[in-house]
Specification:
Helices cover about 45% and strands about 15% of the residues. The chain is of the alpha/beta class. Strands 3-2-1-4-5-6-7-8 form an eight-stranded mixed β-sheet, with helices on both faces. Helix 3 runs parallel beside helix 4 (about 105-115), helix 9 (about 225-235) crosses helix 10 and helix 17 (about 475-495) crosses helix 20. The longest helix is centred in the middle third of the chain and has 20 residues, at about 325-340.
């Protein structure tokens, strides 16, 4: 494709179309930007940030007749996309390449309706961060797309400062298939009132490091665009995760389509913008004073929580199962604080003060004066229940007993005590000294004072607490692990490599880590256990653990800790 000398025509100046025009103009291309009428053209032109003499804005489709590349960025309607290309086919010379920006429709089906299947491709862009360099673009070929066309499109994308990722024409490709199901799951969680808007978005940004929460993401994308993409994907796959949540259709019908409309899940221009939600906890909830904190456990999470508590100024007691484990845990806290001093993140005097506030032991009696105790032992309900029974016997009346579980029922820990109203979930994220999020999970028996105390303590530790009921996965894992599971299933199909899947999600969506590499870091065995818990709890077929994940765990390939998982690793 002679793209260096070609004019590019872009039809449709919504979010994606305007983004394309910007990219092309900044790269010095001549662009013909086409909209349906003067009103749409005026609005679309306002979305284009780039300036210069290289663009012609018009409502006349015939102006695209001489373009070497025609890109449609119309709404997700098969007949509209095919119809446009069918009308342009006799107007454009034979060498002109057609490109569709569809997320949910079949590129092959669009190509055959266009009349030039060998010169039609899909370009799936991620336009929410338009100035980010090195963003990925999925390049979708049909069974008949000429190799030279794909090569030319790839070269053009590189010239635009983007990374071309060749993908198969499967529903949603890579990015759309993984992202749209996750976004739809978040809307379902919101409409069922399991968690607030701010709790959901805060949990996913602070807990996973995502550039924006799912509901803010939908507002940026446009709820109407998301709804159309989900409808197309559901129509092609029948997968219930793609069936648009009813809230989406209601909001679209009401004109609440997101940032472009001034209001979606958030209101814009009123101080209620959405880059980072509010804390999401109960406002002015009653709480009890906490003067001393206990931590039970000696693993990575227990050590991290103890460090956070001691650094915050609270006397902290860590109890391990043996004298040796207790000494090792204290040494681990000291090493972590020393690293902080070397990196300039902690004053030398703060190290000594923190260690003075930390005491360790190996008998539960040491927790007898603690006002709040966090259990951080192995993810085994029998082990946790035994710990809670022991805490019930030694902790003073009114002490809050918290479990750091990420997947087990908090209520089962609570019922091992004679004071279930004092038990709550406090899910810290690893590494606890770094990660700012704490999910506070209340059972049906948790008292308002217990819940308020957990939130107050989390805030005092410098954390952002989000509130949710006691349900498998809480917020983060309930949204994260189905997405990770889908990525494994996609890999098993053989239509994309692990590197391609991860590249699309990192370079395309701006996620800090691709789903398959993240699974390797978490541990495939841990991930499989969480996915099985979600499946067992909700009994939804789409939550069935990916067979490929089960096979890897059976083979002992558990990820980074064993040197092999979904990626190879050095050990």
């Amino acid at each position: 494709m002679p793209h260096h000398s070609s004019t590019v025509a872009v039809f449709g100046l919504g979010t994606t179309g305007a983004h394309l025009v910007d990219l092309l103009l900044r790269a010095g291309r001549q662009v013909i930007a086409v909209e349906a009428d003067d009103t749409a053209l005026r609005r679309g032109r306002a979305r284009v940030a780039a300036t210069g003499d290289g663009a012609e804005f018009t409502t006349d489709p015939a102006r695209a007749a001489g373009a070497g590349l025609v890109i449609e960025a119309l709404p997700e309607r098969l007949e509209a996309k095919r119809g446009l290309f069918a009308r342009l086919h006799p107007l454009c010379p034979p060498h002109t390449v057609f490109a569709t920006t569809t997320t949910g429709l079949s590129v092959t089906e669009i190509a055959f309706g266009a009349g030039r299947a060998d010169r039609t491709v899909g370009l799936h862009l991620f336009p929410l961060d338009p100035v980010r360099e090195g963003a990925a673009v999925e390049v979708v070929g049909t069974p008949l797309t000429a190799d030279g066309v794909l090569a030319g499109i790839g070269e053009l994308i590189r010239d635009l400062g983007r990374i071309p990722v060749p993908v198969a024409d499967r529903p949603g490709f890579i990015g759309g298939a993984l992202t749209m199901a996750y976004l739809n799951d978040a809307v379902t969680m919101y409409e069922r009132r399991y968690a607030s808007r701010d709790s959901i978005d805060t949990a996913m940004t602070l807990g996973c490091g995502l550039p924006r929460g799912p509901l803010a993401h939908l507002d940026e994308m446009g709820l109407d665009t998301a709804y159309d993409a989900l409808e197309a994907l559901y129509g092609r796959t029948g997968d219930p995760r793609f069936a648009p949540a009813p809230t989406l259709s209601h909001m679209v019908a009401a004109g609440l389509t997101g940032r472009a409309a001034g209001r979606g899940f958030y209101a814009y221009g009123t101080g209620d913008g959405a880059p980072e939600g509010a804390a999401g906890g109960p406002a002015a909830a009653p709480s009890r004073p906490v003067r001393r904190i206990g931590v039970v456990g000696s693993g990575t999470m227990a050590v991290g929580i103890a460090e956070v508590c001691a650094r915050s100024g609270l006397p902290t007691v860590l109890v391990a199962r043996s004298e040796l484990r207790a000494k090792e845990a204290r040494a681990a806290v000291e090493r972590s604080l020393e690293r902080g001093v070397r990196r300039g993140k902690l004053a030398p005097e703060a190290l000594g003060a923190s260690m003075d506030r930390l005491s360790t032991g190996w008998a539960m009696d040491a927790l007898g004066e603690c006002d709040l105790v966090v259990e951080a032992v192995a993810e085994d309900i029998g082990v946790k229940r035994a710990v809670f029974a022991a805490l019930d016997a030694v902790c003073p009346p009114g002490a809050v007993l918290a479990t750091s579980t990420s997947s087990l029922p908090v209520i089962e820990c609570a019922m091992a005590t004679g004071r279930p109203e004092d038990v709550v979930g406090m899910h810290f994220f690893n590494p606890a000294p770094v990660m700012r999020l704490v999910e506070v999970a209340h059972t049906v028996l948790t008292s308002p004072e217990t819940l308020g105390t957990a939130h107050a303590v989390a805030a005092g530790l410098g954390k952002r607490a989000v509130d949710c009921p006691d349900r498998a996965g809480f917020i983060v894992n309930a949204l994260l692990f189905p997405y990770l599971n889908s990525a494994v299933a996609m890999l098993a199909e053989g239509l994309a490599t692990a590197e391609e899947i991860d590249t699309v999600m990192t370079a395309g969506l701006g996620y800090p880590m691709g789903p398959l590499r993240l699974l390797d870091v978490i541990g495939l065995d841990v991930s499989l256990a969480i996915q099985r818990t979600l499946h067992r709890t909700f009994r939804e077929p789409q939550l069935t653990p990916a067979r490929h994940l089960e096979l890897l765990v059976d083979a002992g390939h558990l990820g980074r800790k064993t040197g092999r998982g979904l990626h190879p690793h050095d050990v």
